[in-house]
Predict the 3D structure of the following.
Amino acid sequence: MGRLDNKVAVITGAGSGMGRVEAILFAQEGARVAVVDLLPDKSEETVKMVRDKGGDAIFVKTDMSRSVDVKSMVAAVVQEYGKLDILVNGAAIAPNEGSTVELTEETFDKTIAINLKGVWLGMKYAIPEMIKSGGGAIVNFASISGVRALPTIPSYCASKGGVVSLSMVAALENAAHNIRVNCVAPGPISTRMVLDQWPDEQIQHFSNVTALGRLGKPEEIARVVMFLVSDDSYWITGQTIVADGGLTVRIP
């Protein structure tokens, strides 16, 4: 018996990185998984990986910043699987920004639209389906940047801080419907995006200031998310779980 037997899960941003690992793990635990992303090739790779391990998955191309897309995505998942039990809002961008003064309006609007508005839209259309199913679990991806300030990424910090607040509101509003809403706030994780885009000195710096002495692994975050969507965490809602290897506990 898997921890997610008979559950239907939507994972946004599952075409690669942490979302891909979560999709595979959820399927291994018995869930039927909707891989939601804008990138067809990578998303179909995720679906194939799930199916190769005996799981059940579909791909639904979705721009999480567009209401019509998100509404159609939820409808497609329910049509395919009959219900919706789990939502993991992981789709996000981390653009080059500069200081608060240097940040462009275009970058600010795009970051908020995907990282924060996308989380809201996901919950807006998923929660009514969860109510029909008798409850559910939502995990929204924040970041240590949502609970601590990091210079030169103001819109990213603002978007992730907004995710934390929005999740607490949704948790209060939907507890009576047996729907739990939590956040996970990862520190730096060794995804391809980080390894390919960050200079070696930046990776080394974050490894040095993290208590455990390295970047996190996608699998380690996936296990935290698994805990939060499973019945193992049934008494937890409205919380932000910081999974950063001890980075934020260090005095600067």
In short: The beta strands are 8-12, 32-37, 56-61, 86-89, 136-141, 179-186, 240-243. The radius of gyration is 17 Å.
